[in-house]
Amino acid sequence: MTFSVLTSRCRPVLAAAILALACSSAVAFAPIARAQEPDHSKMHEHEGHEGMNMPAQPADPGAAAAEREMRLAWKKESEANHHIAGVLVIIAGLFILAEPAFRQRFPFLRLIWPLCFLFAGIYLLIFSDTELWPFGSQSWWYGLTHNNEDLQHKTFAVILLGLAYIEIQRARGVVKAAWAAAVFPVLAAFGSVLLLFHEHHSGMHGADHMAIMRRIQSEHLAFSITGVGIAVTKGLSEVRFNWQSLFAKLWPVLLIVLGILLMLYKE
Predict the structure, then answer these.
(1) Does residue 138 surpass a pLDDT of 70?
(2) 9 Cβ neighbours under 8 A, 6+ residues apart
(3) Which of 185, 262, 179, 165 is nearest to 223 (CA)?
(4) Positive or negative: CA dihedral 44, 50, 51, 53
(5) Quick one: average pLDDT of 238-244?
(6) Number of neighbours of residue 128 by Cβ within 10 angstroms
(7) Residue 83 located in a structural domain
(8) pTM score, two decimals?
(9) 92: in domain
(10) Domain membership flag for residue 55
């Protein structure tokens, strides 16, 4: 295959990926601008300190113990969400690698990996922020308009649900259009860039909050880099050229790597 032919076939995927990167960058920088606006609902949490300084401890020992318990609960919730997502991503990668060997005998196996993304999206949509209804007292509207972390979690959930839906329809043979092959790479690139700007408030408290935030940022950077690799290799696996089979095996391997990183996540 000549380079010109390969370029012409890759052009829709590359154009879509560039568009996704541009859009995701614009969306990702929006929370930074919003973060500069005062959040009157949380002013009591930040009184007595500046920027990232450790918040003043409550004078009441009981209140201090309750706050520590709440922070610990947030930490366990966040880690559990990452670990559950990691398990589902690893299962998806393994089934993608195994599916060609069993495609004739068990054609339903091609649905397993997009279903893993569907379950991950549903779980993240419901359980990612338990301060929201029905688990907490906050409404979804208030949480999504006042908490950038909540908004980003739900955005990631919608990304997972969107790519899961398209890939399920492709596996069923319902969607056969050429554009459908670009949906996964585009959404994966979008989510990966968004991870670079992901806010994480649970690590912004305590004497070692700076070390915790550096670790969280480095972990999300690893997620983002791996996600970009998945987006690129998945897109190339949809293009007919000499190395297509290589990329068809490489992108599920990167999925497994991402799943392992998620399972190792610790705040």
Answers:
(1) yes
(2) 239, 240, 241
(3) 262
(4) negative
(5) 93
(6) 19
(7) yes
(8) 0.75
(9) yes
(10) no
